[in-house]
Write a structure and sequence with these properties.
The structure holds two protein chains of two kinds. Chain A is of the alpha/beta class. Chain A has ten helices and twelve strands. The mean pLDDT of chain B is 87. Classes of the chains: A alpha/beta, B mainly alpha.
């Protein structure tokens, strides 16, 4: 099967007075049609910037410096605004983190949908309206509420509306940036289930950006774990959760509390992520790594291929799964 | 929409006590600042003449009675009579001068809004670049200028040095169009009097620019600030991500949201517009309410001054009422 999206050595820097912040620094990964990639990392790891750069919406002073973004086989990294605009919202769309602020407060829900549909499809207003009510119905909003304004809905309902907007034109790829983070846990799972259902019925690829590894485990086919602007491990989800290879993956999975164990000590990874203006020469995780060796300090580890679809950025793995 | 109607009705009801409080303030302040009788008769009139005038003006009654008499008069649309020059009814003095002020205010208002919003948009969409800094400076400088100074500079440049525009008055001599609305531009158009129309426009340009430029700075800064803020909001990011064209994102989504505080400012600025109009009129010998007010203050024509202030105050209240209604119409979240 052909890849829906392949990212090759992508670099996105923010040019500030203090220097270039290397928010995304040499990232590569891929996904197939209909798959879900869980893009996981702590805040500041560059995952949101990576999400935005796929739509080429990184705002100034951010800039895509180099790399390839192959979408359906075309390298869109070099596309101009005009071509990108036709792609945005129709082939690749995005759901944002805060449903309270991601809808225009002065526009009715229905207008949001009709406007989006009619931007990409030249169809009469009445027809777009009909489509809008079908979409609302699909995400579980009573269509007769289409005439209401955003402030008349709860957070969960607004996120449903955000999803309706994102799937309005049957995109091939949906980027969801922390789209359940501002909701309470019960609503989170409702929205996540809705997303699973829609993904199957629309056959969409999904990039699920989140800091919450247990939430990601509910939905992802592949995991891309980011640390300090780089992907440190990219693996099929089941393998990642059963046999994490990178020391950061290991530490992260260990720090998820398990409610079945009582009296448990809360595990965490000591230290802080590095400064992305002047990242360390060697491995960026080295200062926090329990297995760190001399070479890790001096040299940046390569992305080692363990199996066909499993990669890890660490000196401890030299093309084989066993630990050296 | 039913809730909008309820809101409007409620807002109108709130305006009524506001009007009475305001009338009270104007009335009592006018009693404090001087004695109308000595203004009419001078300081050395015989006692019985003073008593007669007091009787005639109703000034011998207790002050509250005077106030209620005055309110009664107002309700009948009577602002009293001028104390000088044949004692014309104040209301007809006002109607004679109001169209000139209205014409100037409308044009100046349009200049300030158009210039302010346009420069604000350019500054915001060029955030941190040359035009941003330039228009920010423009916003600060114009706000700090003194109206007569702007007026005199424009008169010097366009009237004296270049000699292309008249430096005072409302229209060329004997060119007044037939009165229909009292607005020369409109009247001359309605009567198809092209000569008057051109003359009226030429006379309007400098005063409107003077007042308009003075008032535009605050709109430049306000539009810039709020547009930048809105452009960074999630729903704008989301609009870009849906592939909407730039035009739609900036004007339909961003500007409309940024417009709400601008509208509030328009309501607040309206009083400043009237004050500015007074100064502009004096600078350009514009025969409007400002010139009238200035002239009557120097003659101590109490009733006319009081009438003009009441008239201005009523306009300000009406406009703020209107602004609130438009506000509620644009922003569905506002239903108090």
């Amino acid at each position: 099967m052909k890849n829906l999206l392949t990212i090759q050595d992508l670099r996105v820097y923010y040019y500030l007075r203090e220097g270039a912040v290397r928010a995304v620094d040499g990232v590569s990964f891929f996904m197939k049609r209909g798959e879900t990639v869980g893009l996981v990392g702590e805040s500041g790891s560059g995952k949101s910037t990576l999400g935005l750069s796929i739509l080429k919406l990184v705002s100034s002073p951010g800039k895509i410096v180099s790399g390839k973004i192959l979408f359906n086989g075309n390298d869109i990294a070099g596309w101009n605004e005009k071509k990108m605009r036709l792609l945005r919202g129709s082939r690749i769309s995005m759901v944002f983190q805060d449903p309270m602020t991601s809808l225009n407060p002065l526009m009715r829900i229905e207008e949001h949908l009709v406007e989006t549909i009619r931007t990409h499809q030249k169809i009469p207003k009445a027809e777009a309206k009909k489509k809008a009510s079908l979409l609302l119905n699909e995400v579980g909003i009573p269509p007769e509420r289409g005439g209401d304004y955003p402030h008349q809905f709860s957070g969960g309902m607004r996120q449903r509306i955000g999803i309706a907007l994102a799937i309005a034109l049957n995109p091939d790829l949906l980027i969801a940036d922390e789209f359940t983070s501002s909701l309470d846990v019960i609503v989170q799972f409702q929205i996540l289930n809705l997303m699973k259902k829609l993904k199957a019925s629309h056959q969409m690829g999904l990039i699920f950006i989140s800091h919450d590894i247990s939430l990601v485990s509910e939905i992802a086919d592949r995991i891309a774990l980011m640390y300090a602007g780089q992907i440190v491990e990219f693996a099929p989800a089941d393998i990642f959760f059963s046999e994490p290879l990178h020391p950061y993956s290991e530490g992260l999975l260990n720090s998820v509390p398990n409610i079945e164990l009582s009296d448990q000590k809360l595990n965490y990874i000591p230290g802080m992520p590095p400064d992305l203006v002047r990242p360390p020469d060697g491995c960026r995780f080295y200062p926090r790594c329990p297995y760190g060796e001399d070479i890790c300090r001096r040299k940046e580890p390569p992305l080692v291929q363990i199996e066909k679809e499993h990669m890890v950025k660490c000196f401890r793995y030299d093309g084989k799964k066993s630990r050296t | 929409m039913a809730s909008l109607r309820v809101y409007v009705i409620r807002r109108v009801l709130v305006a009524i006590p506001m009007i009475f409080i305001l009338l009270g303030i104007v009335f009592f302040i006018m009693r404090v600042v001087g004695d109308p009788v000595s203004a009419i008769l001078g300081g050395h009139a015989p006692q019985e003449q003073i008593e007669r005038i007091k009787e005639q003006l109703g000034l011998n009654k207790p002050i509250l009675f005077q106030f209620f008499d005055y309110l009664g008069q107002l309700l009948r649309g009577d602002l009293g009579r001028s104390l000088i020059w044949g004692q014309r009814p104040v209301i007809s003095e006002i109607w004679d001068h109001f169209p000139a002020t209205l014409e100037l205010s409308i044009c100046a208002f349009l200049v300030s809004i158009l210039v302010g919003i346009f420069t604000g948009i350019i500054a915001a969409t060029n955030f941190g670049r040359f035009f941003d800094h330039a228009f920010r400076l423009y916003g600060i400088i114009t706000y700090g200028l003194f109206i007569p100074w702007i007026g005199i500079m424009l008169q010097l440049i366009f009237g004296v040095y270049l000699g292309v525009l008249p430096i005072g008055g409302r229209i060329g001599t004997l060119m007044e169009p037939e009165t229909i609305t009292g607005l020369y531009v409109l009247d001359s158009l309605l009567t198809l009097n092209m000569e008057s129309f051109i003359s009226a426009i030429r006379h309007l340009i400098l005063p409107s620019l003077t007042l308009g430029i003075y008032l535009s700075g605050i709109y430049t800064r306000l539009t810039r600030t709020h547009l930048i803020e809105v452009l960074n909001k999630d729903f704008i990011k989301s609009a870009w991500a849906r592939g909407l064209p730039k035009r739609t994102v900036i004007f339909k989504h961003a500007l409309k949201n940024a417009f709400i505080p601008i509208l509030t400012m328009m309501g607040l600025q309206f009083a400043l517009l009237l004050v500015g109009a007074v100064l502009t009129e004096i600078t350009f010998s514009w025969p409007g309410m400002g010139t009238l007010l200035f002239e009557r203050i120097t003659y101590r024509d109490f009733t006319t001054v009081q009438g003009i202030i009441v008239f201005f105050a009523l306009i300000v209240i009406t406009v703020s009422l209107l602004v609130d209604v438009i506000y509620a119409y644009i922003d569905p979240r506002i239903r108090y």
